[in-house]
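Hello again,

I reread your note about wanting to compare the complex against the isolated chains. To keep things tidy I'm splitting this into two emails, and this first one only covers the full assembly. Below are the input lines as submitted, including protein chains and any nucleic acid or small-molecule components. They are followed by the predicted structure of everything together. The single-chain runs will come separately.
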Amino acid sequence: MAASISGLLKPWTPRVFLVRWSRYNPYYLEPEVRKEAYIKPEAELSAEEKEQRELKALRPIKAATNDVTSSVFSDPVISKFVGMMMLDGNKILANEIISKTLENIKRKQVDKYHKAPEGKKEEIECNPYTIFHQALENCKPVVGLASIQKGGKFYQVPIPLSDDRRRHLAMKWIITECRENKHRRTLMYEKLSQELLAASVREGNVIKKKLEMHKMAEANRAYAHYRWA
Amino acid sequence: MAAQRGVLFQEKVSRMLSKQHGRPVLKPNKPLVLKDEVANRRVKRGGASCVTEISVLMACWKQNSFVESVCSAETKAFYSCVDEAQAAKKNTSELSAMQGERLPPKQATLLLKRFPNLRTEI
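Full-complex prediction:
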């Protein structure tokens, strides 16, 4: 008994550290995961890139999260989309849905490719990643609306949006539209592939929603002076 | 001189609190101690930026019934204008921190919190 009590009096550090709500010191820098950033020879670096490298040699760097990889298959945009589609923390399911979606897109496009006449074969895009990026670009709104109060009334004022906000809106519209406005019995990957293929050629409900946003902004263009940025 | 002014002020406050000359002028319900913070001033609203670019873009949209590919030049001009406006805002907000020999309220609060008013002797 005496041995166990004296064992407790040793200097003690906890074996488990709570990290869920903790934050890195702002002094830490973000990790650079892409291989292209390190392959560049010394001569091709601009002045600011050289500065960045020197800074990275001196400052501590945050640990990379489990999502980022340096593989050729990892795409930050697709990772963001997976995160947005995830429900209740089930990222495995979200990832599976996205990979099935991309496979589905590829199947449809290859099918179209083989059925197309010889002249039209080069025009058909088979890479599902380029289709995804093209669809996302087509869904991004150019201007957004902000509710600004002036003289007691609220006006919808057209404002420029940041890139992150535009990407977020495009992704959110795609996901909501697939979840709500499609037939009940179709699976999510089927709905997503249909929507993405339509958006890449500027058709479909998400493009319609973006155009409605643009039309609202155009209708309220007189209030553009109410912005104060 | 500042010490003299401080002493005179303290004497005036104690006279206002005392009951020697009839009713006291001040009847404070909290101790008369300065806070370690400063109130935030109202931010002056600047003018809207890139309004011409927006109107040009929207005129193009209206003419071409909202087809995006036709208005690509106006869209690029709009984006470049937005980037310039953001960069300009960042630069000016760094430089105009001193407004007429007065500290901005956030900086004042930060300094006061670092060197707070001593309320107890221990």
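For quick reference: Chain B has four helices and no strands.

B.
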